[in-house]
Design goal:
Helices cover 49% and strands 19% of the residues. The chain contains 4 helices and 4 strands, in the order E-E-E-H-H-E-H-H. The strands form 2 sheets. A two-stranded parallel ribbon has the order 1-4. A two-stranded antiparallel ribbon has the order 2-3. Strand 2 and strand 3 form a beta hairpin. The longest helix is centred in the middle third of the chain and has 21 residues.
Length: 117
Amino acid sequence: GEQPLLPYESCNLGSINLSKLLTRKSMSGNGGSTGCVIDYDKLSRSVHTAVHFLDNVIEVNNFPLEKIKEMAHANRKIGLGVMGWADMLISLNKAYNSEEGIQLAKEIIEFIHNSAG
């Protein structure tokens, strides 16, 4: 959700496309068919890269006011969100409003939170 900012503060925002972080996996006992699974190693790398990138934006940004630049450098606020959630659920064959889908949302957001720190 949105967070209020202090006077002259800025926040750099980015998103990770979850639908691009899936990999095909052979499903044993399922006639050799394939399914998708979340590539958590790739997600972790994506989170680290995104956080590093957003922090670097603070360094190279041309701020319109010196006070905004001072606040941005002092607080270094960034926001990393997700997109592609519905597409990912479709690829994983999970219902959007199912308990399984809700639990997966909690797990992924917790993983991103822990990876960003």
